[in-house]
Design goal:
The protein is mainly α and 88 residues long. The chain has four helices and two strands, in the order H-E-E-H-H-H.
């Protein structure tokens, strides 16, 4: 994912999600979780390809939202603690 200011948010990801799976992304602040989701949702430019049921998605910002994928942005002050602390 490439941000407007030229910084690389995340790279080298190969992710496969099966039908009905729930995926939880965990990682340190700044590790690229939000960048990955933003790229998948078509919110930031990315290189590589995105496929859905074996077919390439050419316009993810149109195809994936809102019917296929939900994206909830983080609030850093909420997620800066541990996962357990945030759940509690």
């Amino acid at each position: 994912a490439l941000h407007d200011d030229g910084t690389v948010g995340v790279e080298g990801v190969d992710l496969t999600v099966g039908q009905g799976e729930l995926v939880l992304l965990l990682g340190a602040v700044g590790s690229g979780k939000s960048s990955l989701l933003a790229a998948l949702a078509g919110l930031v430019h990315h290189t590589g390809s995105l496929t859905w049921n074996g077919r390439e998605v050419s316009e993810p910002e149109l195809f994936l939202r809102p019917g296929q994928v939900a994206y909830v942005a983080q609030t850093p002050r909420v997620l800066s603690g541990s996962f357990a602390e945030n759940v509690l």
